[in-house]
Each structure stands twice: as C-alpha cells, then as structure tokens.
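Researcher: Sequence recovery benchmark, item below. Answer with residues only.
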C-alpha cells in the first residue's frame, strides 16, 4: 500500500514538473519585444513594387538618390515601427513550406533595413497580415523563427515613393514675407512691398497715388506662405512636353531671398472639363500640378489690395 502511494506521488510530481517545463517553454516562445534605442539615419524598404531608400540629413528625411523631401509624419511612423517590434508569439520555424505559407517569399514579402552610420540596427521581413490586419507574420534579423507581430506593419511599410514624398514646394514663416510681384500673360505687372512689422508696418504698391488697404495686403501676402503641389511630374518632364500657356510669373520676397514661380494654364477642351494648371519654381527642380484654387490665389490685381 505504501509502495503504491509512493508511486502515485512520484507520478504526480513528474506530471507537475512536465507542466512547469511546458509552461516555461511556452513563455519563452510568447511575447518578445525587439527594440533599439539609436536613431537610424537610413531606412531601406523593398516592396514587391519598388525599393525606397530613406536617408536623414540635417534632421530632414529624403527619398532615393533624387533627394525628394519626405513627409515628416510618415517617416516618423516608419522609424517608430522599426525601432520597437512586439512579437506576440513564435508561430513556426523558417523553412520553405512555412515561408510560402506566411508569404515571406520574393514577390510577396516586404523587406526593411534600418542603419545608423552604416551599421545595421534591424532587418525584418514582413509577410501576410493575420486575420486581424493589425498583426503580421515576420522574421527578424535573418533569424530562424517566424513570429506573429502586433501593429499594422504590413500597412505601414507597404508604401511607395509617391506616398512618402512631400507635396510642399515652399513653406515660409508668414511674417518673413516682404514682397510680391505678379506678371500676367498679357504683360501687365504689379507689385506689393511690406516694410517693417507690427504697428510700424508700411506698404508700397507699384501704381502711383494708390493707397493700400493694410489688412487686405497682409492677408493676401501671408496667404502665399505655403505652396503645395497636387502632383509631381517625372524628373525628365519639361514644360514643352506638357504644353499650355504661361499664365502668371510670380516673385515672392522672403528673408532677403526671392522665390520664383511660373504657372502654366491648360485650357479646357470641352464644357465638361475644367482648366488645369501646372508650375515650376526656383524652390524645386521638378514640375508639378497645381489645383485651380492654389493657382487662383496668385491671380490677384491691384484692386484686390487697395482701399
């Protein structure tokens, strides 16, 4: 009888030990956080469609060799996502069958590398999303495990140059704008200059004996502080290829510099269409489309700012 009890006790202890070992093993394969503290200065994203190289210079991010300015908040999201990855569980080991199962193969996967001064900080491969789009299957740093990771990694990194490229042509502190001259297609031209600031501000206009309405002039000039493109043209496109007629030539003075803008108008070909506009500027080597609203902001006359 005593021997039987002893056997049962030993069996219970062995079972308990097995449960503990399994629990430890499961915990080890459970949630893991992959983090690094350094700020990357280069991130390369390879999607099935294209390769995007983001590089940081003087705290500003640029895209590819063309150095297109990038959208700040989009890059911030990318940096945050690659710097801290939460793997919820190890789901499989890396082998051909599992790579295909989780779409971690060429033509489907997204590869991301983050570097600092040439040193690799993190490398991940992102496969398909899980049943919840806020989770994805990934490998990390070329390891032998496939993880289920939290966060919308697939959505974050399945991006493009067009999506990441900033549409800002210029953006100035409105208080630094000092002058504007506008030349129209018919050759007429006028200009407005602001001198001083605050209560000491004075205005001059190119038409003699014309009194300027200070509020109208201030509102007009400062409305031009930010210029955005609605679309960028390919690097090799020029105005001759796009056609249209020169609509306005603008010179905007700011902090002892002059920004220039040539706006072209393409007339509608039918009643169902609208006039369209594109432009080139001293602030960008690339041609870009302008919305009609943005183009018409510059199409003002002396009557719009005089008393």
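Model:
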């Amino acid at each position: 009888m005593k021997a039987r009890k002893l056997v049962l006790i030993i069996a219970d202890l062995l079972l308990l030990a097995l449960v503990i070992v399994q629990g430890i093993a499961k915990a080890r394969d459970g949630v893991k956080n992959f983090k690094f503290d350094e700020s990357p200065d280069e991130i390369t994203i390879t999607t099935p469609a294209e390769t995007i190289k983001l590089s940081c210079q003087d705290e500003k991010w640029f895209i590819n060799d063309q150095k297109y300015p990038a959208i700040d908040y989009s890059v911030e999201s990318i940096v945050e996502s690659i710097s801290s990855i939460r793997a919820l569980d190890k789901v499989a080991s890396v082998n051909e069958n599992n790579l295909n199962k989780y779409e971690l193969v060429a033509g489907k996967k997204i590869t991301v590398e983050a570097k600092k001064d040439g040193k690799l900080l993190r490398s991940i491969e992102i496969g398909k999303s899980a049943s919840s789009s806020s989770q994805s299957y990934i490998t990390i740093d070329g390891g032998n495990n496939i993880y289920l990771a939290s966060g919308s990694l697939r959505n974050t990194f399945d991006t493009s140059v067009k999506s990441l490229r900033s549409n800002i042509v210029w953006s100035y502190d409105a208080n630094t704008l000092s002058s504007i001259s506008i030349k129209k297609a018919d050759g007429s031209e006028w200009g407005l200059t602001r001198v001083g600031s605050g209560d000491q501000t004075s205005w001059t206009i190119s038409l003699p004996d014309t009194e300027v309405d200070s509020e109208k002039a201030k509102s007009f000039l400062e409305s031009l502080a930010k210029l955005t493109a609605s679309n960028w043209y390919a690097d090799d496109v020029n105005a001759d290829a796009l056609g249209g007629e020169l609509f306005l030539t603008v010179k905007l003075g700011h902090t002892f510099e002059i920004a220039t803008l040539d706006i072209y108008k393409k007339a509608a070909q039918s009643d169902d269409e609208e006039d369209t506009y594109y432009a080139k500027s001293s602030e960008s080597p690339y041609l870009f489309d302008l919305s009609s609203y943005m183009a018409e902001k510059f199409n003002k006359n002396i009557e719009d700012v005089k008393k």
